[in-house]
Amino acid sequence: MTIRKPVIFCDFDGTITVNDNIIAIMKHFQPEGWEELVNGVIDQSITIQEGVGGMFRLLPSSSKDEIVQFALNNMKIRDGFQQLLDMCRAENIEFLVTSGGIDFFVYPTLQPFGIAPEQIFCNESNFTGDQIEILWPHACDPDCPSQGCGMCKTAIIRRYPADQYHRILIGDSVTDFAGAQLVDTVFARSHLVDKCRELGMPFYEYHDFHDVIRKLKEIHLVGDKA
């Protein structure tokens, strides 16, 4: 029997960070029409790509510096994140950030943690036009049921075959719903808890990354090196 290697797919907004940064930006700058778009994403009446792209198109590119500064100043990392990374390095577990967030706040926030750029998957931004345009470098593959993820988490997960990897997802919201149905082990909070319960899917609820570390040890996916 082949021993499958653990791999972690970790969300950013509301997971690595305490708050959802896109929502925080919209609440702070209050562009007209943003609430309708975010509600459409949450109730899945529009795709994530349509909603996130539409929200940022409500903001002028001339506000770039103010928006970037607000996002970075507003950032708070969830407790235990550094310890989770330390554990992954000690155990030689691949750790990937799979985020529906945007490059201008994802990369600067993660830079101090020494996470290599090739371990980070997120959306990109273009401030050259009158309005902010979001770019989608990690599009859905043909097997994605949504075909509008923006940053397609299931496409990234499928690069790690189920017969070779024990796939672990850590997330909190609508961008994690499809991925949670694909992996072996789910760590959930917030909206993802509700969705897992609705679908009858097994999951472990977490409040911080110390919870995740303890459970990974308890279910013997990692040793005691961390």
Task: Describe the structure concisely.
Helix content is 40%, strand content 17%. The protein has 226 residues and is α/β, with parallel strands linked by helices. It has one domain (5-218): Rossmann fold.
Write the layout of secondary structure elements.
Elements: E1 5-10, H1 12-16, H2 21-29, H3 34-42, H4 48-57, H5 64-73, H6 81-91, E2 94-102, H7 103-110, E3 120-126, E4 133-135, H8 153-157, E5 165-171, H9 177-180, E6 185-188, H10 191-199, E7 204-205, H11 209-218
Parallel strand pairs: 1-2, 1-5, 2-3, 5-6, 6-7
Antiparallel strand pairs: 3-4
CATH architecture, by name, is 3-Layer(aba) Sandwich
CATH evolutionary superfamily? HAD superfamily/HAD-like
Quote the CATH topology: Rossmann fold
What is the level 1 CATH name?
Alpha Beta
Mean pLDDT: 94
Structural class: alpha/beta
Estimated share of beta-strand residues: 15-25%
- Following the backbone from N to C, one meets helices and strands in this order, namely EHHHHHHEHEEHEHEHEH
Strand neighbour order, sheet with most strands: 4-3-2-1-5-6-7
Beta-strand segment tally:
7
Distance between the termini: 27 Å
Helix content: 25-40%
Tertiary shape:
globular
Q: How many strands, what sense, and barrel or not for the largest sheet?
A: 7 strands, mixed
Q: Uncertain segments of ≥5 residues (pLDDT<50)? A: none
Number of domains: 1
Number of helices: 11
Rg from C-alpha positions? 17 Å
